[in-house]
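Residues determine shape. Take a concrete instance:
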Amino acid sequence: MHREFLMGNEAIALGALAAGVNVVAGYPGTPSTEIIETVRKRRGDDVYVEWSVNEKAALEVCAGAAYAGARTLVTMKCVGLNVAADPLMSLAYIGVKGAMVIVVADDPGPISSQTEQDTRTFAQLAKIPCFDPSGVADAYQMVQDAFALSEELHTPVFLRPTTRVDHGYEAIDVADESAWEKSLPAGFEKDPARWVIFPKLSVRAHAEIEARNASLSDRLSAYPQNRLERESDVCAAPRLGVATGGINYAYVRESAGADDCRILRVATPFPFPEELALDFLDGLDEVLCVEELDPVIERALLQVCGRHHLPVRIRGKLSGDVKPSGENSVAYVADLLAIFLGRASAPAPAALADAPELPVRPPVLCAGCPHRASFLAVKEAMRLEKTIYCGDIGCYTLGNARPLDMCDTCLCMGAGITIAQGVGHVEPDTRCFAFVGDSTFFASGITGVVNAFYNQADLTVVVLDNSTTAMTGHQPHPGTGVTALGEKVAPVSIEAVLRAIGLTVVETVDPLDHDHAVDVVSRVASEPGVKAIIFKSPCVFVSRPQATSHVDWSRCIGCQRCVKTLGCPALVPSPDGKVAIDESQCVGCTLCEQVCPTGAISGGASA
């Protein structure tokens, strides 16, 4: 053993490697991304890892490997579980031969996701065991426990860290590489009665799963991470308890009143450890449930009390004592406990009592981002037309911000293309545009284009190809020609895919060649049917020019057209109305040079 200072996601990766994982697959999505990045860096030669085109593909790849006896790890963020849900629900019935741990990073807040989604609830729906770590050390150990349980029961198992666990840091003890388990898959054995899902199999499997989970509830009551803590057995009336789990357990333990009540720490929210819960409830009058996001623990305790006729008042989200949504914090939990324990308010930590409010920092496209140029080209070409701009998930969602204001809808990955079709069927006089990134195109955009072409829609698909998966940390995708292992492969051509579907009008253009880009948009958009424009220019963090633009103040008339048109963070208005350029941010994309009416800006890399 040795000690390392690790991020939660790094700890999960090392825990999986220590458990002898053979195959790892996932799709990048904050806050889960660093798990695969760490596996890629720290793995042995016998561990295969890939960035899959989407979460469904990742889960199916790992299912196949697990059918052959391998230990597999699948990673995704909470909304990615929706994409993987189809194979997951059937896999819960089919089971696995080796082991499969599905890490789903939940994002209370949400901080970087479309929705607040609770994987503990999904575990109940799928009837799959779920582990809920409270910190970095927990995550390291629990992923190993999840592998052991999965292999024993031949079932997928969830590990559900949240953002503060994924991105928290802690110095923990980890196994030396020489001590990592070695898993030797036995191989796939043909057995249609086991691997081919038919109603007869499903009927039998469902009954077996229900029986398994009922017995597993009793067994998990003895799991060490599920525990009952009695810091004070002699509590003043009423006798109080707190039930919690995940990162909120850490918040509860940090709160001033934690020693004045009994604490139930739930590490396996499904199947719920009922026997342990009964010990916890014994003799209590009231219980406060502190959790994110759904009232999973609260509902479970209500069921336990009802089943066993216990006169314990269960309080939490359902009773209105805890906020029903959003991320909790140490301060918020401290206030909850102060009220619950009958105190007026929680004492503020001395070091934070006079801390200033954090400044508001709205998200914005980076200086020099080619997406800004793409949006501007479409906006100028369509300025006299009735249009709708359907967005998607990625950096380019930020095109909704002013002054661009180029994102009218955003639902989920790939939906922009199909949303545009729906609007077009209702409003045929509207020019419909659908923006999609290069990685998202491969993940979930292709089917929308096929649907549009097959059903004879009239829209313009705009692929914003910046040669990477930028928002999540520049992971490769099929169009980059590089795999997660760094292998050079033939890139998949977006243009070739579009033409293979049947599109005859597909044009690739550099968005930073502004006038030409505007002309291409005007011409392509006027064509009937489904057509596509590929705006191809690398992310500034993939290919960053060295020269920066500068302003000749003798020619600057203070119109601030560059600022008002682009909203680039490198453009800084001065007190006298003129504009300066922050050279620490400018990458010399020259877009501001091209929109300046007096030619006052020059010097960029492409000038």
In short: The mean pLDDT is 92.
